Amino acid sequence: MKIICVGRNYTDHISELKNEKPEEPVLFQKPDTSILLKKQPFFIPDFSNDIHYEVEVLVKIKKIGKHIQEKFAHKYYDEIGLGIDFTARDLQNKLKEKGLPWEKSKAFDGAAVISDKWLQKEELPAVDALNFRLEKNEAVVQSSSTAHMLWKIDELIAYISSYFTLKIGDIIFTGTPAGVGKVATDDRLVGYLEDQQMFSIKVK
């Protein structure tokens, strides 16, 4: 399986990081070794002093697809999850300044939190209007809706599949809203999708 991530998909987050609004989705990948193991804490890596949380709605692909038309994209997933794209912001900024790839800042071990459970699409409101939030130490730090995405889920699936064949079990991280911030030792991060708790992570 592969993890395909979408960057700069919420206008408020683009403004927050002073990035340019892209003309098409920004894509990058994380390896399966980046997945944080279940019931394990997130350990701040020794190569960064500025690890940021980025909560994101996830989509799990259920069948193989290539060059999927947007009107058929809904047939390629049934399950919606929630996750965190941990980012070494200090390292990412250095890489961006030099025009280098982001992988070291985005794809390190433990950098991908995938929710403990997946929710069935038919049991949720419309996928283009899902509410989600992240709490850090019981305070809400990110809160948004997929209604604010620049590119909706079906658009993303169509676009991604024009470059990469999507396979069963692949996971798409659909982008993060504003409110990203630094984590510290002993933080507790809890994610909610439509008020259902999806994960709880301890930072060490």
In short:
This protein is of the alpha+beta class and about 200 residues long. Helices cover about 15% and strands about 35% of the residues.
Task: Describe the 3D structure.
- The protein is about 15% helix and about 35% strand.
- The model has no long low-confidence stretch (mean pLDDT about 95).
- The two termini are about 25 Å apart.
- Strands 1, 2, 4, 5, 7, 8 and 11 form a 7-stranded mixed sheet that branches. A 4-stranded antiparallel sheet has the order 10-9-13-14, with no helix packed on it. A 3-stranded antiparallel sheet has the order 6-3-12.
- The chain is an alpha+beta fold and about 200 residues long.
- The protein has 4 helices and 14 strands.
- It has one domain (about 5-200): Fumarylacetoacetate hydrolase, domain 2, CATH 3.90.850.10.
Order of helices and strands: EHEEEEEHHEEEEHEEEE
Q: Which outline best applies?
A: globular
The CATH homologous superfamily: Fumarylacetoacetase-like, C-terminal domain
**Number of alpha- plus pi-helical segments:** 4
Mean pLDDT: 95
Fraction of helical residues: 10-25%
> How many strand segments?
14
- Distance from N terminus to C terminus (CA atoms, Å) equals 27 Å
